[in-house]
Automatic annotation (TrEMBL):
Required cofactor names: FAD
Gene name linked to the record: glcE
Superkingdom of origin: Bacteria
Pfam families in the cross-refs: FAD-oxidase_C, FAD_binding_4
Keywords: FAD, Flavoprotein, Oxidoreductase
Residues in FAD-binding PCMH-type domain copies: 1-170
Name of the featured protein: Glycolate oxidase FAD binding subunit
Species in which this protein is naturally found: Novimethylophilus kurashikiensis
MF-aspect GO terms: FAD binding; oxidoreductase activity
C-alpha cells in the first residue's frame, strides 16, 4: 500500500490547467449513486492503507483507497467498530467512497451519522493543492469543521486522500427481536421506543414485521428482551448486514427511492413497496409513480427524496432552495474554481 498523494495532486493540477473534467472514484462500487459523470477517471484505489490506529485512543486514520473490509477487520480484532455502519456495495468498497457518499447504516439514528465520526481529513482541491482539515483527536474542535463538509459531497469539493475517524467499542451482547406489526402501529412503536431507555440501536419494518436490534451489556439486553417481547431472530447479523449493504430483495431492481423524513411523519400516500428504518426517519420506496409526485409528497411531509440508480439525465437529489444552491455554488467555486471535480454529480449546476 502506498501514499500517492503527490501523484494525484499533479494529475489534478494538469486537469485544471487543461480544464479536463475528472470522475473521481475508488473501486467504483457506488457508480449508481448521484448523477452520471462523463469525464476522465481519476482513481484513488491505489492510495490505500491504514496509516495509524491506536485502539486506546478510539481513533483510526487511513487512506481513502483503503477497503472498508480491511479497516473493519483491524477494528474487530480490537473489539471496536465503525458505529455508523457504512454500506459496502462490494468487497472492495473503500473508505473514500463511504465518506464521499455520506451514507450510514442501520445504527445511524441511534449512534450518529458518518459526519459525526469524521475527525479530520486531507484532500486535494480543484487547484491541485493538498489541504488538511481537522485532526486525529476527539478534542480537536476549533472553528468550522471543514472536514465534515467533504462528507456527502461526492468528490465535488476535493479528492479525499486520508481520513481520521472516531471509533467505538463493540457492544458486549446483541440480539434482534421480531414480531408482526401493521405499518402504522410499527411507526408508533418505534417512536415510543425512541423516548425510552431501552438498548435499541437499529429498527426496521419490512413485510409486516418489526425488527428491533438490542445491543449493550448482557444484562441490559436480556432485560429488554423480556420486557419488549417478540421472537429472537436467528442469524440476525446477516439480516442487518443485508439491510446495510442494500442486499435485501426490495433493493434488487433500480431505481428506487431513499426518503428522509421526520420520524413522526405518518405513512405517505404513495403506492409501492416500503421499507422503514431509523425509527421512521429513513424510508425506502419502490414505486412507479411520477418523480414529481414523489418529491412533492415527501416535501409536503417535511422531508426530501433521493433517486437511487444509474441516472444520466434525472435530477437525483431533491431540488435545493435558491439560497442553499447559491451557497453550494460558492463552496464549489472556492474549492474547485475550474469545476473539474465530478462536475454535475450532485446537481447540474455544480
Amino acid at each position: 500500500m502506498a501514499d500517492i498523494a503527490d501523484v494525484l495532486a499533479e494529475k489534478v493540477r494538469a486537469a485544471a490547467a487543461a480544464k479536463t473534467p475528472l470522475a473521481v472514484q475508488g473501486t467504483n462500487s457506488r457508480h449508481f449513486l448521484g448523477r452520471a459523470v462523463e469525464s476522465e477517471t481519476l482513481s484513488i484505489a491505489e492510495h490505500a492503507g491504514i496509516i495509524d490506529y491506536e485502539p486506546r485512543e478510539l481513533v483510526i486514520t487511513a487512506r481513502a483507497g483503503t477497503p472498508l473490509a480491511e479497516i473493519e477487520a483491524a477494528l474487530d480484532a480490537a473489539g471496536q467498530m465503525l458505529a455508523f455502519e457504512p454500506p459496502r456495495f462490494s468487497a472492495e468498497s473503500t473508505l473514500g467512497g463511504a465518506i464521499a457518499s455520506g451514507l450510514s447504516g442501520p445504527r445511524r439514528a441511534y449512534a450518529g451519522a458518518v459526519r459525526d465520526f469524521v475527525l479530520g481529513c486531507r484532500v486535494v482541491n480543484g487547484k491541485g493543492e493538498i489541504l488538511k482539515f481537522g485532526g486525529q483527536v476527539m478534542k480537536n474542535v476549533a472553528g468550522y469543521d471543514v472536514s465534515r463538509l467533504m462528507t456527502g459531497a461526492y468528490g465535488t469539493l476535493g479528492v479525499l486522500l486520508d481520513v481520521s475517524l472516531k471509533v467505538l467499542p463493540k457492544p458486549a451482547a446483541s440480539l434482534t427481536l421480531v414480531r408482526e406489526y401493521p405499518v402504522d402501529q410499527a411507526l408508533r412503536r418505534m417512536r415510543e421506543l425512541a423516548g425510552k431507555p431501552w438498548p435499541v440501536d437499529a429498527s426496521c419494518h419490512l413485510d409486516g414485521r418489526l425488527y428491533l436490534r438490542l445491543s449493550g451489556s448482557p444484562e441490559a439486553v436480556e432485560t429488554a428482551k423480556r420486557r419488549l417481547g417478540g421472537e429472537v431472530l436467528a442469524g440476525d447479523e446477516l439480516f442487518w448486514q443485508h439491510l446495510r449493504d442494500w442486499q435485501l430483495p426490495m433493493f434488487n431492481e433500480r431505481p428506487f427511492w431513499r426518503l428522509s423524513l421526520p420520524a413522526a411523519a405518518p405513512m405517505l400516500p404513495l403506492d409501492g413497496e416500503w421499507l422503514i428504518e431509523w425509527g421512521g426517519a429513513q424510508r425506502w420506496l419502490k414505486t412507479e409513480q411520477e418523480i414529481d409526485v414523489v418529491r412533492q409528497t415527501v416535501a409536503d411531509a417535511g422531508g426530501h427524496a433521493t433517486l437511487i440508480g444509474d441516472q444520466a439525465g434525472e435530477d437525483v437529489f431533491h431540488p435545493l432552495p435558491p439560497a442553499l444552491l447559491a451557497l453550494h455554488r460558492q463552496l464549489k467555486q472556492a474549492f474547485d474554481p475550474a469545476n473539474i471535480l465530478n462536475p454535475g454529480r450532485l446537481y447540474p449546476e455544480l
